From TrEMBL:
Protein name per the record: Mechanosensitive ion channel
A Pfam family reported for this protein in Swiss-Prot or TrEMBL: MS_channel_3rd
Domain Mechanosensitive ion channel MscS: 105-170
Alphabetical list of Gene3D superfamilies matching this protein: 1.10.287.1260, 2.30.30.60, 3.30.70.100
PANTHER family hit by this protein: SMALL-CONDUCTANCE MECHANOSENSITIVE CHANNEL
Species annotation: Hyunsoonleella flava
Entry-linked InterPro entries: LSM_dom_sf, MS_channel_1st, MS_channel_C, MSC_TM_helix, MscS_archaea/bacteria_type, MscS_beta-dom_sf, MscS_channel_2nd, MscS_channel_C_sf
Family the entry assigns: Belongs to the MscS (TC 1.A.23) family.
Amino acid sequence: MENVDKYLDMAQGFIVEYGLKIIGAIVIWIIGSWIIKKINNGVSKVMTKKNYDESLQKFLLNLIGWILKILLFLAILSQLGVETTSFAAILAAAGLAIGMALQGSLGNFAGGVLIMIFKPIKIGDLIEAQGELGVVKEIEIFTTKIVSPTNKEIIIPNGALSNGNITNYSTEGKLRVDLTIGVSYDADIKQTKDVLMKVLTDNPQVLKDPAPSVNVSELADSSVNFAVRPYATVADYWDVYFGTIEKCKLALDAAGIEIPYPHSVEIHKDA
Protein backbone atom coordinates (compact mmCIF):
# COMPACT_ATOMS: atom_id res chain seq x y z
CA MET A 1 0.00 0.00 0.00
CA GLU A 2 2.89 2.33 0.77
CA ASN A 3 4.28 1.77 -2.74
CA VAL A 4 0.86 2.44 -4.28
CA ASP A 5 0.54 5.68 -2.31
CA LYS A 6 4.04 6.62 -3.38
CA TYR A 7 3.26 6.10 -7.07
CA LEU A 8 -0.04 7.95 -6.74
CA ASP A 9 1.76 10.91 -5.19
CA MET A 10 4.32 10.83 -8.01
CA ALA A 11 1.58 10.71 -10.62
CA GLN A 12 -0.28 13.55 -8.95
CA GLY A 13 2.89 15.62 -8.83
CA PHE A 14 3.58 14.92 -12.51
CA ILE A 15 0.04 15.94 -13.47
CA VAL A 16 0.25 19.13 -11.42
CA GLU A 17 3.67 20.01 -12.85
CA TYR A 18 3.21 19.02 -16.50
CA GLY A 19 -0.54 18.72 -16.99
CA LEU A 20 -1.18 22.45 -17.37
CA LYS A 21 1.88 22.78 -19.61
CA ILE A 22 0.65 20.00 -21.91
CA ILE A 23 -2.84 21.50 -22.03
CA GLY A 24 -1.30 24.91 -22.75
CA ALA A 25 0.83 23.41 -25.52
CA ILE A 26 -2.26 21.81 -27.11
CA VAL A 27 -4.12 25.13 -26.90
CA ILE A 28 -1.15 26.95 -28.48
CA TRP A 29 -1.03 24.35 -31.25
CA ILE A 30 -4.77 24.68 -32.01
CA ILE A 31 -4.79 28.49 -31.90
CA GLY A 32 -1.45 28.74 -33.74
CA SER A 33 -2.65 26.45 -36.54
CA TRP A 34 -5.80 28.56 -36.89
CA ILE A 35 -3.75 31.78 -37.01
CA ILE A 36 -1.37 30.30 -39.63
CA LYS A 37 -4.34 29.33 -41.79
CA LYS A 38 -5.83 32.83 -41.46
CA ILE A 39 -2.49 34.47 -42.31
CA ASN A 40 -2.05 32.27 -45.39
CA ASN A 41 -5.60 33.02 -46.55
CA GLY A 42 -5.07 36.75 -45.98
CA VAL A 43 -1.75 36.79 -47.85
CA SER A 44 -3.32 34.78 -50.67
CA LYS A 45 -6.18 37.27 -51.02
CA VAL A 46 -3.77 40.23 -51.06
CA MET A 47 -1.56 38.61 -53.72
CA THR A 48 -4.59 37.70 -55.83
CA LYS A 49 -5.91 41.28 -55.55
CA LYS A 50 -2.49 42.62 -56.58
CA ASN A 51 -2.42 40.19 -59.56
CA TYR A 52 0.68 38.33 -58.40
CA ASP A 53 1.83 35.55 -60.69
CA GLU A 54 0.22 32.22 -59.76
CA SER A 55 3.60 30.49 -59.53
CA LEU A 56 4.92 33.19 -57.18
CA GLN A 57 1.78 32.99 -55.02
CA LYS A 58 2.14 29.26 -54.41
CA PHE A 59 5.88 29.55 -53.78
CA LEU A 60 5.53 32.37 -51.23
CA LEU A 61 2.57 30.73 -49.45
CA ASN A 62 4.56 27.52 -49.16
CA LEU A 63 7.57 29.38 -47.77
CA ILE A 64 5.51 31.50 -45.32
CA GLY A 65 3.69 28.38 -44.13
CA TRP A 66 6.95 26.59 -43.27
CA ILE A 67 8.36 29.63 -41.41
CA LEU A 68 5.19 30.04 -39.33
CA LYS A 69 5.09 26.32 -38.52
CA ILE A 70 8.69 26.46 -37.24
CA LEU A 71 7.82 29.46 -35.04
CA LEU A 72 4.75 27.60 -33.72
CA PHE A 73 6.90 24.57 -32.96
CA LEU A 74 9.33 26.75 -30.94
CA ALA A 75 6.41 28.33 -29.04
CA ILE A 76 5.10 24.87 -28.09
CA LEU A 77 8.55 23.80 -26.89
CA SER A 78 8.79 26.95 -24.79
CA GLN A 79 5.39 26.20 -23.22
CA LEU A 80 6.57 22.71 -22.32
CA GLY A 81 9.54 24.20 -20.49
CA VAL A 82 12.24 23.47 -23.04
CA GLU A 83 14.90 26.17 -23.13
CA THR A 84 14.48 27.62 -26.59
CA THR A 85 17.88 29.35 -26.49
CA SER A 86 19.61 26.05 -25.86
CA PHE A 87 17.35 24.39 -28.36
CA ALA A 88 18.15 27.09 -30.91
CA ALA A 89 21.87 26.45 -30.45
CA ILE A 90 21.32 22.71 -30.86
CA LEU A 91 19.10 23.40 -33.86
CA ALA A 92 21.78 25.62 -35.42
CA ALA A 93 24.44 22.94 -34.95
CA ALA A 94 22.09 20.29 -36.30
CA GLY A 95 21.18 22.61 -39.14
CA LEU A 96 24.83 22.96 -40.11
CA ALA A 97 25.30 19.19 -40.13
CA ILE A 98 22.05 18.66 -42.03
CA GLY A 99 22.99 21.45 -44.42
CA MET A 100 26.25 19.69 -45.26
CA ALA A 101 24.37 16.46 -45.82
CA LEU A 102 21.61 18.11 -47.84
CA GLN A 103 23.59 20.36 -50.13
CA GLY A 104 21.49 19.17 -53.03
CA SER A 105 18.27 20.18 -51.28
CA LEU A 106 19.69 23.62 -50.47
CA GLY A 107 20.68 23.93 -54.11
CA ASN A 108 17.11 23.05 -55.08
CA PHE A 109 15.80 25.71 -52.70
CA ALA A 110 18.16 28.30 -54.22
CA GLY A 111 17.06 27.15 -57.66
CA GLY A 112 13.42 27.67 -56.72
CA VAL A 113 14.20 31.22 -55.56
CA LEU A 114 16.02 31.96 -58.83
CA ILE A 115 13.08 30.65 -60.86
CA MET A 116 10.76 32.93 -58.91
CA ILE A 117 13.03 35.96 -59.40
CA PHE A 118 13.88 35.59 -63.09
CA LYS A 119 10.65 33.83 -64.14
CA PRO A 120 11.95 31.70 -67.05
CA ILE A 121 8.80 29.63 -66.66
CA LYS A 122 5.35 29.96 -65.11
CA ILE A 123 2.38 27.69 -64.46
CA GLY A 124 0.71 26.68 -67.72
CA ASP A 125 3.86 27.01 -69.87
CA LEU A 126 4.84 24.18 -72.22
CA ILE A 127 8.53 23.57 -71.58
CA GLU A 128 11.31 21.11 -72.36
CA ALA A 129 13.96 20.70 -69.66
CA GLN A 130 16.20 17.95 -68.30
CA GLY A 131 15.13 15.74 -71.20
CA GLU A 132 11.43 16.06 -70.31
CA LEU A 133 8.56 17.77 -72.16
CA GLY A 134 5.39 18.94 -70.44
CA VAL A 135 3.14 21.71 -69.15
CA VAL A 136 4.18 23.34 -65.86
CA LYS A 137 1.70 22.29 -63.19
CA GLU A 138 3.29 23.66 -60.02
CA ILE A 139 6.50 25.37 -58.88
CA GLU A 140 7.31 24.41 -55.29
CA ILE A 141 10.20 25.31 -52.98
CA PHE A 142 12.39 22.36 -53.97
CA THR A 143 10.82 20.93 -57.11
CA THR A 144 8.78 21.82 -60.19
CA LYS A 145 5.99 19.55 -61.41
CA ILE A 146 5.14 19.25 -65.11
CA VAL A 147 2.54 17.13 -66.90
CA SER A 148 3.75 15.28 -70.01
CA PRO A 149 1.71 14.95 -73.25
CA THR A 150 0.85 11.41 -72.08
CA ASN A 151 -0.63 12.90 -68.85
CA LYS A 152 2.20 11.74 -66.58
CA GLU A 153 3.37 13.95 -63.71
CA ILE A 154 7.12 14.60 -63.87
CA ILE A 155 8.96 16.11 -60.88
CA ILE A 156 12.16 18.03 -61.67
CA PRO A 157 14.52 19.32 -58.91
CA ASN A 158 14.72 23.11 -59.04
CA GLY A 159 18.51 23.07 -58.76
CA ALA A 160 18.91 21.10 -61.98
CA LEU A 161 16.10 23.06 -63.63
CA SER A 162 17.59 26.48 -62.87
CA ASN A 163 21.12 25.42 -63.92
CA GLY A 164 20.15 23.62 -67.12
CA ASN A 165 18.76 24.58 -70.50
CA ILE A 166 15.04 25.37 -70.62
CA THR A 167 13.08 25.53 -73.86
CA ASN A 168 9.86 27.47 -73.26
CA TYR A 169 7.43 26.87 -76.12
CA SER A 170 4.79 29.19 -74.67
CA THR A 171 6.76 32.44 -74.36
CA GLU A 172 6.24 33.61 -77.94
CA GLY A 173 2.70 32.23 -78.11
CA LYS A 174 3.25 30.75 -81.60
CA LEU A 175 4.89 27.49 -82.65
CA ARG A 176 6.05 26.35 -86.06
CA VAL A 177 4.94 22.86 -87.06
CA ASP A 178 7.70 21.11 -89.02
CA LEU A 179 6.46 18.48 -91.46
CA THR A 180 8.06 16.73 -94.43
CA ILE A 181 5.82 15.47 -97.25
CA GLY A 182 7.36 13.38 -100.05
CA VAL A 183 5.92 13.02 -103.58
CA SER A 184 6.93 11.16 -106.71
CA TYR A 185 9.59 12.53 -109.06
CA ASP A 186 6.90 12.50 -111.76
CA ALA A 187 4.82 15.06 -109.85
CA ASP A 188 4.71 18.68 -110.96
CA ILE A 189 6.48 20.78 -108.33
CA LYS A 190 4.34 23.90 -108.76
CA GLN A 191 1.09 21.93 -108.64
CA THR A 192 2.27 20.06 -105.55
CA LYS A 193 3.20 23.31 -103.76
CA ASP A 194 -0.19 24.80 -104.63
CA VAL A 195 -2.05 21.75 -103.30
CA LEU A 196 -0.08 21.67 -100.05
CA MET A 197 -0.35 25.42 -99.53
CA LYS A 198 -4.13 25.30 -100.01
CA VAL A 199 -4.34 22.70 -97.23
CA LEU A 200 -2.60 25.17 -94.92
CA THR A 201 -4.52 28.30 -95.91
CA ASP A 202 -7.88 26.50 -95.65
CA ASN A 203 -7.21 25.44 -92.07
CA PRO A 204 -8.55 28.09 -89.61
CA GLN A 205 -6.17 26.81 -86.91
CA VAL A 206 -3.13 27.69 -89.05
CA LEU A 207 -2.00 31.24 -88.27
CA LYS A 208 -1.84 33.87 -91.02
CA ASP A 209 1.04 35.64 -89.27
CA PRO A 210 3.68 34.28 -89.50
CA ALA A 211 2.59 33.01 -92.89
CA PRO A 212 2.84 29.27 -93.64
CA SER A 213 5.32 28.07 -96.23
CA VAL A 214 5.89 25.11 -98.55
CA ASN A 215 9.31 24.56 -100.13
CA VAL A 216 11.31 21.78 -101.74
CA SER A 217 13.68 20.58 -99.05
CA GLU A 218 15.35 17.48 -100.48
CA LEU A 219 15.74 15.34 -103.57
CA ALA A 220 15.67 12.00 -101.80
CA ASP A 221 16.30 8.50 -103.17
CA SER A 222 12.70 7.84 -104.18
CA SER A 223 10.86 11.11 -103.54
CA VAL A 224 10.93 14.86 -103.79
CA ASN A 225 10.49 16.08 -100.22
CA PHE A 226 8.62 19.27 -99.34
CA ALA A 227 9.11 21.17 -96.09
CA VAL A 228 5.59 22.06 -94.95
CA ARG A 229 5.72 24.78 -92.27
CA PRO A 230 2.45 26.04 -90.77
CA TYR A 231 2.36 28.10 -87.54
CA ALA A 232 -0.11 27.48 -84.71
CA THR A 233 -0.84 28.52 -81.16
CA VAL A 234 0.49 26.30 -78.39
CA ALA A 235 -3.02 25.00 -77.69
CA ASP A 236 -3.62 24.11 -81.38
CA TYR A 237 -0.17 22.64 -82.08
CA TRP A 238 -1.07 18.95 -82.07
CA ASP A 239 -4.36 19.51 -83.92
CA VAL A 240 -2.47 21.30 -86.68
CA TYR A 241 0.33 18.71 -86.66
CA PHE A 242 -1.85 15.63 -87.10
CA GLY A 243 -4.58 17.38 -89.10
CA THR A 244 -2.11 18.71 -91.68
CA ILE A 245 -0.63 15.27 -92.31
CA GLU A 246 -4.06 13.76 -92.90
CA LYS A 247 -5.34 16.62 -95.05
CA CYS A 248 -2.17 16.68 -97.18
CA LYS A 249 -2.57 12.98 -97.96
CA LEU A 250 -6.22 13.43 -98.93
CA ALA A 251 -5.48 16.52 -101.05
CA LEU A 252 -2.59 14.87 -102.90
CA ASP A 253 -4.72 11.79 -103.60
CA ALA A 254 -7.52 14.00 -104.93
CA ALA A 255 -5.05 15.82 -107.22
CA GLY A 256 -3.62 12.54 -108.53
CA ILE A 257 -0.19 13.22 -107.08
CA GLU A 258 1.56 10.04 -106.00
CA ILE A 259 3.17 9.67 -102.60
CA PRO A 260 5.94 7.07 -103.09
CA TYR A 261 6.62 4.35 -100.59
CA PRO A 262 9.87 2.47 -99.95
CA HIS A 263 10.66 -0.26 -102.44
CA SER A 264 12.78 -3.30 -101.80
CA VAL A 265 14.58 -5.22 -104.54
CA GLU A 266 15.06 -8.95 -104.11
CA ILE A 267 18.05 -10.40 -106.00
CA HIS A 268 18.22 -14.13 -106.68
CA LYS A 269 21.63 -15.53 -107.33
CA ASP A 270 21.90 -18.59 -109.53
CA ALA A 271 23.57 -21.51 -107.86
